[in-house]
């Protein structure tokens, strides 16, 4: 709902993680390098990195596990 203080919380938390884990202390030679490395980071983040809030599963594992329970 517009104006809800929690509507942007997920995006803000995600950007904070990207800033602290991916960007902090790094520089990129070109926009292409940044784009390629960001793509690799997002792939790792969604498919391989385990998350404590997701029962120590990657986001894709968590989603697939919970979709099986719903179906």
Topology:
Blueprint: H1 9-23, H2 31-47, H3 59-70
Question: Could you write a compact summary of the structure shown?
Answer:
The chain has three helices and no strands. By secondary structure, it is an all-alpha fold.
Task: Report on this structure.
The chain is mainly alpha-helical. The chain has one domain (9-70). 62% of the residues lie in helices and 0% in strands. It is built from three helices and no strands. It has helices at 9-23, 31-47, 59-70. It starts with 8 loop residues before the first helix and ends with a helix. The mean pLDDT is 88.
- Which percent range describes the beta-strand content? under 5%
Overall average pLDDT: 88
Assembly state (oligomeric) = single chain
Low-confidence stretches: none
Question: How many individual β-strands?
Answer: 0
Q: Helix amount, in percent?
A: 55-70%
Largest sheet: none
- How far the N terminus sits from the C terminus, by CA atoms, comes to 28 Å
Rounded to an integer in angstroms, the radius of gyration calculated over CA atoms is 15 Å
Number of helices, counting only DSSP H or I runs of 4 residues or more: 3
Shape: extended
Number of domains: 1
Order of helices and strands: HHH
Main structural class: mainly alpha
Which keywords apply here?
single chain; mainly alpha
């Amino acid at each position: 709902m517009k104006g809800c203080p929690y509507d942007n919380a997920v995006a803000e938390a995600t950007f904070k993680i990207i800033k602290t884990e991916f960007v902090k202390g790094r520089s990129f030679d070109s926009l292409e390098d940044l784009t390629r490395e960001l793509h690799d980071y997002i792939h790792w983040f969604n498919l391989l990195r385990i998350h404590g809030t997701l029962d120590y599963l990657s986001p894709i594992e968590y989603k697939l596990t919970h979709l099986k329970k719903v179906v």
